[in-house]
Known about the structure:
Elements (H helix, E strand, L loop, with lengths): L3 E10 L6 H12 L9 H27 L6 H17 L3 E9 L4 H8 L4 E8 L6 H15 L7 E4 L7 H11 L9 E7 L3 H7 L21 H15 L7 E6 L12 H10 L4 E5 L8 H17 L4 E4 L7 H13 L1
Parallel strand pairs: 1-2, 1-3, 3-4, 5-6, 5-7, 7-8
Amino acid sequence: MKSKTAVLLVNLGTPDSPAPKDVYKYLIEFLTDGRVITKPWGIRQLLVRGLIVPLRYRQSAKSYGEIWLKEGSPLMVHSKTTKKLLQENLGSEYIVELAMRYQNPAIKNVIQNIMKNKVDHLIVVPLFPQYASATTGSVHEEILKIISSFQVIPKLTLVNNFATNPLYIEAVADIASTYKLGNYDHYLFSFHGLPTSHLTQANPTCMQSKDCCKATCATNQGCYKAQCLATAHAIAAKLKLESSSYSISFQSRLGRDPWIEPFTINTIKDLRKKGAKRVLVFCPSFVSDCLETIHEIGIEYADEFIKEGGEALHYVKSLNDHPKWIAALRSIVETA
Length: 336
């Protein structure tokens, strides 16, 4: 049998169903990850199991139920389609598989199945455009933990980020161009938020000045916020958006610790106060539509904007199965 290269796509994860018990199980696994909530083990367990999940899981289950598709969760459905299309695009010399960092299909099980084939090179592509310890870092750690127990360790390539990959940027811009951009007063780039401690733990010099993330450089090239800003500016440049016409914000805050600002919900309210009536929201940290895009932006924040007197707040659909996104993934794999 000819040696092959395996490509493992890894997304964040999803409950097995929108039932409260499955959402509870998913949230426990997700939030007890020491790279997600970085507090000491005992405090983390107490917070997650005793406070955060018991207070959130039923509402989260309700939200999942409102977006659940006949085939499963949107994130899982779109991720499977991405995997299928990339396999077709790369051809038979590659084995393309999909895993989730939390819940199913579990990374360990998928890798064990991959290694049953004659694989001499494993390329891991976390499906997070911008690097964060809580996402890409957690995937890398789990992969290394699993691989380290093998007697024969294959050549391993871990993709770090693709925040400004030209084809990724072009794919986002292509999808945005299907919206009538001239019908909006303002454009908002909303990225998933992180506690500021995640930035300073990765780089002690981070957050030392207001503008430290405005441009990527040697000292901040691993900074999540700097990569988010670089992504937003690259998409805006591709679409020829004027700098005054767009803003950048962060969503999905959890807990009372300081998080990256400005917060998306506050930015939306501020835009309305400044007279914006129609806003188009990009979500470039998500490659597959999921709870954070469909429900948080498309339902919760859209309703809030209208309550504030706005006319419409729409979100740009995620990359999902867009041909240029598949081409971007192929480029990432071939470069690796």
